[in-house]
Amino acid sequence: MSDISDTFWHILDEYRTSLEGFERAEKLREHCLPGEATDVSGSASGSGTGTESCNIMAAIEAQFEAIFASLSRMESPSLSYNSRSTWDNIRYQDRTGLKMREDASNTVLKFDAPQSINRFALTLKVMSIIYKLVQSNTYSTKRDIFYQDTQMFGSQTVLDDIVDNISCMLKVPRWSLHVLATSKGCIAGDLQYTDTDGNFVDCSVTAGVLVPNRVEGIENLHSNAKFVLIVEKDATFQKLLDDDVCSKLAPCIVITGKGFPDLNTRLMVRKLWDTFHPPIMALVDADPHGMEIMSIYKFGSRSLSFEAHNLTVPTVNWLGILPSDIQRLHIPKEVLIPLNQRDKAKAKELLTRPYIHTLPVWGHELGVMLRKGVKAEIQSLSAISPRYLVDVYLSNKIRFGGWI
User: Fold this and answer.
1) 147 tagged catalytic
2) Tens place of pLDDT for every residue, the chain, 404 residues?
3) How many CA atoms lie within 13 A of 112 on its CB side?
4) Residue 219: beta bridge partners?
5) I need a labelling partner for 279 at 20 to 30 A (CA). Which of 121, 265, 273, 289 fits?
6) Tally of CB atoms within 10 A around 1
7) pTM of the model
8) Residue closest to 218 by CA, chosen among 254, 191, 237, 178
9) Catalytic residue among 81, 131, 139, 147
10) How far apart, in whole angstroms, are the C-alpha atoms of residue 388 and residue 65?
11) How far apart are alpha carbons 71 and 229 in whole angstroms?
12) Are 37 and 151 in contact (CB under 8 A)?
């Protein structure tokens, strides 16, 4: 407990130094926001990058000021944010997807509670780092922050959760906190843009390119793509490129988050939708986990439900593989995989999601999967023919509208 207490007081001292007095910070806000009311979300009229930075700093200052006020009253300080650990706090909207309820319950981190004091101190530490980054208009990756003190954070996952919690607490988009996540997604096809460093990027190169780390800053997007294809796995993405999918189904854009999509890949899909309004289709394994990955693009995730309006793409359609395709296409039994208990539990849990009732055909496909008791990976189509995926399956599905 003594080590945590020392960390807490050290963080407060660091914050005081970074702030350099509340009066100077107030003058900075007045300079950035002359005659305007402070809006932490950055939605004030005439707001820009400078305004947004000032608003983020003001939100962090408010948290520390509340802590100082509690200490001055000889009370134990606390931090709170909307809880995303339960579906009870989440509601579904047709246009937005999974969204945090206005009356959502809170998670409270208390300085005097043994079970939360460590997370309380770490949250203050990360907020002080974010404050300095925003104040100096510099950026850092989550990985770099983790390696500043690996023993203090314990694991990268702990830091990732804290950054999300701070974003939720401050009501600020995570990508506005100047903390970047290294992109893992790849994109290929008919798309060109200028990145935040002013470099021209052409995604039509043979192997595609990595999704940029700062999607919100890319400019001058150009594309003649007729559709966007989201691919679940990197192995399938690479096979599609090897089979020349971008030429055979041209013009198109193909993107993958390499499994569960990272924030930047989700932002990129949303950026494409906002900019070009193309049909967007998902190619995933015919199993519960593939369906959940597709659902994240379309409906959002519980963990980032407070940012659903910036991340979800409600028009995403399920192109394949559909569980009903297994019998329809006579996929050989030897390449099918029996559902295990985890798969069955996930499928049944998906049937209870708040959005499933709006898509009965998705529910029907889940029912087919559970009744048949098998799942199929995208690669199973190669058992029919090595080039069946691109030359027949995708070509016919896209041409004749075989999506749901």
Assistant:
1) yes
2) 445 555 555 555 555 555 444 444 444 445 444 444 334 443 333 334 567 888 899 999 999 999 888 888 888 899 999 988 888 888 888 888 888 888 888 999 988 888 888 899 899 999 999 999 998 899 999 999 999 888 889 999 999 999 999 999 998 888 889 998 888 999 999 999 999 889 999 998 878 899 998 898 899 999 999 999 999 999 999 999 998 898 898 899 999 999 999 999 999 999 999 999 999 999 999 999 999 999 999 999 888 888 888 899 999 999 989 999 999 999 999 999 999 999 999 999 999 998 888 889 999 999 999 999 999 999 999 999 888 999 999 999 998 888 88
3) 7
4) 194
5) 289
6) 8
7) 0.82
8) 191
9) 147
10) 62
11) 54
12) no
Q: How far is the C-alpha of 225 from the C-alpha of 273, rounded, in Å? A: 11
What single letter denotes the amino acid at residue 328? R
For 365, the token pair is: 């496909």
CA nearest neighbour of 129 among 22, 56, 43, 39: 56
- Whose tokens are 């198109």? That residue is 252
Sequence-separated (6 or more) residues with CB below 8 Å from residue 207:
188, 238, 241
Q: Tell the residue number behind the tokens 């990268």, with chain if given.
A: 156
